[in-house]
Design a protein that fits this description.
It is a single chain. It contains 26 helices and six strands. Strand 3, helix 7 (165-169) and strand 4 (177-181) form a beta-alpha-beta unit. The chain is mainly alpha-helical and 572 residues long. Strands 1-3-4-5-2-6 form a six-stranded mixed β-sheet, sandwiched between helices. Helix 16 packs across helix 17 and helix 19 (432-440) runs antiparallel to helix 20 (449-461). The protein has helices at residues 4-26, 28-38, 44-59, 78-82, 109-120, 133-146, 165-169, 184-191, 211-226, 251-255, 261-264, 277-287, 300-306, 311-324, 337-351, 355-367, 374-385, 392-409, 432-440, 449-461, 465-478, 486-498, 502-515, 520-532, 536-549, 554-566, and strands at 69-72, 122-127, 150-154, 177-181, 231-238, 268-271.
Length: 572
């Protein structure tokens, strides 16, 4: 006689272990329709598979991080946040005087931007790299800051999602908000690699939720907070359709405008005009006297005419000439930004062959959203270089090369196209365990806690659970035990759950609840752990606590039903 239950159990196990997640994600709309139409005819085991998969997904994803925005109060210094380099360097972005890019226009670009922002509320400044999009956006935000607006600058590392009550409380009572979102190309590209917090809610949700969706949800959340008051958004993005490197998407493709129309249709697009030759000449006239570069004023206009119509190329040429103590002439001026970056990369590698590993280290750390500091970049370059006996001389040279690149190339604050000059992209996965070792040995003064948290997220994403746990434990040791770090304990519980260390996971969830008992996620995850420990009555109590805080969430209701079934309380 055929044992149908055994056959079905074998099929169920196969689906759970191998194919179910991929199938559900790829065919989520079809599955939703199927479940709706089929109703009670679906075998009850499907429900158990669904619940089981949902349970596992629930624990695989870390909670949201603190607010992703730096808050600049009204009449604050916006440019010091946008351009953090010291103004003592005359070639630092914030130290260079703002130039009117089209002197012959009756209405200035600044006036056009103000008018468009007033009309549309959401403004996207587009243009190719080097045109000065960030400077125009920062100057525009500064105007509104002086008029009483709070500016929120999107930082590069934190998770972006709908604002929490804590995020909104940081704004106090000010509801005139202006959001400044710079360089959306790179943000969209790296943001698409982050694990989705919302995927924990259902196996039909994608594992990685794009930044376009999360950012729209975030901004709409702040719009509701502002109510009848105003809210404005200024964003910048590159529009080149050719890729910087052979194995990477173009700047335009990274935006995915066709794929996420709901987000992009909110913006009025302003195509930033190229600076006229007179503006380039004026930039040279205003900047060179503050440097030690020798130049003839009669050469400024000819140089402007041969320049690639970008402000950035002017500045980077001046940096190169100052570093090499060379006079500025039309003959030694590099006409294009790409040629400038290529030459400077080749010159660095020619001087220090190990400079290539430092460029790789910067690329790797940017992908992981880890801060670029000397204490991190140098050992990361050594990790990539390797630790073979014949490499001793190269390892010794890394420190010298990094000092040179910091002074000459500002490698710790890379500009668009600078790292891409080496025309390759490094894959992060194989270096993560070594980076975890590196961070475990860092002293408190050399440790950036947000970088440590982001490294833990990446380790978790690639299933290096033990290493992720070590990072989280180190993070907890340095953080004060306040309600603000309850999400770190929740993350720790999730990691421990994946390690099948259920009792320790339970302790972490309890710690999260001790710090912040009004959060439903720890209660829900606690219920899941208690279920796996077969402590059904306690699991039921935890689900009830989660539902008391968030009664509109379906997962605790569903899992509550499963627990009641195990307790044979079938009517409930």
């Amino acid at each position: 006689m055929i044992d149908l239950n055994s056959i079905w159990q074998s099929i169920s196990n196969y689906l759970i272990d191998n194919k179910l997640s991929q199938y559900l994600v790829a065919n989520k709309d079809l599955v939703r329709i199927f479940l709706t139409v089929s109703g009670v005819s679906i075998p009850s085991s499907i429900g158990l598979i669904w619940w089981y998969r949902n349970q596992k997904r629930q624990h695989r994803f870390p909670p949201a991080t603190p607010s992703p925005f730096a808050i600049i109060p009204p009449d604050g210094d916006v440019l010091s946040v946008v351009f953090p380099r010291s103004k003592k360097d005359p070639l630092a972005d914030a130290a260079i005087s703002y130039q009117r890019r089209c002197p012959n226009r009756e209405i200035s670009v600044r006036q056009e931007l103000i008018q468009q922002l007033e009309n549309s509320k959401w403004l996207l400044i587009e243009g190719r790299t080097g045109l000065g999009k960030t400077r125009e956006a920062g100057e525009l935000a500064q105007v509104f800051s002086k008029e009483g607006w709070t500016v929120l600058w999107l930082k590069s590392a934190e998770w972006v999602d709908k604002p929490t009550t804590e995020h909104l409380n940081e704004l106090n009572t000010n509801r005139k908000l202006l959001f400044l979102l710079d360089d959306l190309n790179q943000r969209m590209y790296f943001g698409s690699q982050r694990l989705s917090v919302r995927a924990q809610n259902s196996p039909l949700e994608p594992l990685k939720e794009p930044l376009q969706i999360r950012l729209l949800r975030t901004l709409e959340g702040y719009e509701q907070f502002c109510g009848n008051a105003e809210m404005k958004v200024i964003a910048t993005a590159r529009n080149e359709k050719q890729s910087d490197t052979a194995d990477e998407l173009s700047a335009w493709d990274k935006l995915a405008k066709d794929k996420y129309p709901q987000f992009w249709q909110r913006f009025q697009v302003y195509q930033l005009p190229e600076p006229e030759d007179e503006a380039i000449s004026q930039l040279l006239l205003a900047t060179i006297p503050n440097t030690n570069i020798q130049a003839e004023e009669k050469d400024y206009l000819p140089i402007a005419r041969q320049n690639d119509s970008t402000f950035r190329n002017v500045v980077e040429n001046l940096v190169r000439l100052r570093n090499r103590k060379i006079a500025l002439t039309p003959d030694n001026y590099r006409d294009t930004l790409r040629a400038n970056w290529d030459e400077r990369y080749q010159q660095a590698v020619q001087r220090y062959p190990v400079a290539d590993y430092i460029y790789d280290a910067v690329d790797l750390l940017r992908q992981l959203e880890v801060s670029l500091t000397k204490e991190i970049v140098q050992p990361t370059a050594l990790i990539i270089l390797g630790n073979q006996f014949w490499q001793l001389r190269q390892r010794y040279q890394v420190k010298q090369a990094l000092n040179y690149l910091i002074d000459a190339e500002q490698i710790l604050t890379p500009r668009d196209g600078q790292i891409e000059a080496r025309d390759k992209t490094i894959e992060p996965q194989k270096y993560l365990p070594k980076l975890a070792e590196l961070f475990s040995g860092l002293s408190e003064e050399n440790l950036d806690l947000l970088s440590l948290y982001n490294l833990a997220l990446n380790l978790y994403q690639y299933k290096y659970y033990e290493e992720a746990l070590a990072c989280v434990d180190k993070l907890i040791n340095y953080l004060p035990q306040s309600s603000e770090i309850s999400f770190v304990w929740l993350f720790r519980g999730n990691v421990l759950y994946d390690l099948k260390r259920y009792k320790e996971a339970l302790d972490s969830y309890d710690q999260a609840l001790e710090l912040k008992p009004d959060k439903d996620e720890p209660w829900y995850n606690r219920g899941n752990v208690l279920y796996d420990l077969k402590r059904y009555k306690e699991a039921l109590d935890s689900y009830d606590q989660a539902l008391e805080l968030k009664p509109d969430k379906d997962e605790p209701w569903y899992n509550r039903g499963i627990v009641l079934g195990n307790l044979k309380r079938y009517k409930e």
